Amino acid sequence: MSNPNPTVWNVVLDAGAATDIVLAADFPVTGRNEGGFADLAPGLNLDCALWQTVAPVRDPGTDALGEAYLEPWLSEVAASGRKVRAVMGYCAGSVFAGVLAEKIAAQQGTAPRVVVFDPELVDVPTVHLQFGRVIGNMTTVLTAEEIEELSGTAERLAAKDDVAPVEFAAGLYAAFRPIGTAALRRAGLDEDYAGELVALVGSFMSYLATAAGLDPRPGWQRATVITSASERSGLNRMRTTPGIAPIEVGDEQRFEVEHRDLLRTPEVTASVAGVLAAQPGAGA
Prior knowledge:
The chain has a seven-stranded mixed sheet with strand order 1-3-2-4-5-6-7, sandwiched between helices. It contains ten helices and seven strands. The protein is an alpha/beta fold. It has two domains: 9-121 and 213-277, Rossmann fold (3-Layer(aba) Sandwich), CATH 3.40.50.1820; 124-212, no CATH class. The relative contact order is 0.16. 44% of the residues lie in helices and 12% in strands.
């Protein structure tokens, strides 16, 4: 098969049907202020394809998450018959990168390289922060009262004793769905398009909730980690968060750039290009 199902993998770079693949795990949305793998890709000088995850449409309150969430991604890779050379991940996507790399290593018999950018173990604060960013991106359609209501709901849910990320994400989406739908309809969007955008938020909450339940540490143990200067992101945050055991990684490269700029900084791109071009068995 030449290219994957576009509802499962997005082809960022196409190098022909016989080439290896580099996979990238992320949840890119139009208008976000962070760089993405589409920004990183041109400078990598790859002689193979680059596929990026397309998150499945899920409702965190009603749909089963967990390892079954990964199955479409893995099935498309297996059906391609192509070798996965490396797996990359950004932020929470680094969890999926670590887990996919281990599963693909077992599937193809050779371990792909792993490169993760500000990797995050997803917890309630992570989901809370990301939900805040979603709301922040909708200030042109949400009223001040709606923003206050959603922010207040998030604070109350986060303050509950022993709230789990899955429960928290489901609660956030349940609160957001009617308010977000009303706001988008008020802004002039038709019912179907408003529904798609609201469902996208549900899919993002499901993506985070699923990541919270996976263990990427085995994959991260041999990963090259690209760390930004942002204190609240990646290894920087996890090293200062009580209760998180030390994260073992293969190699760490630090850059004096903000988290949002990691995937669009030329020095980072050059470093990652070197990692991907290195011979198997060299380095991490």
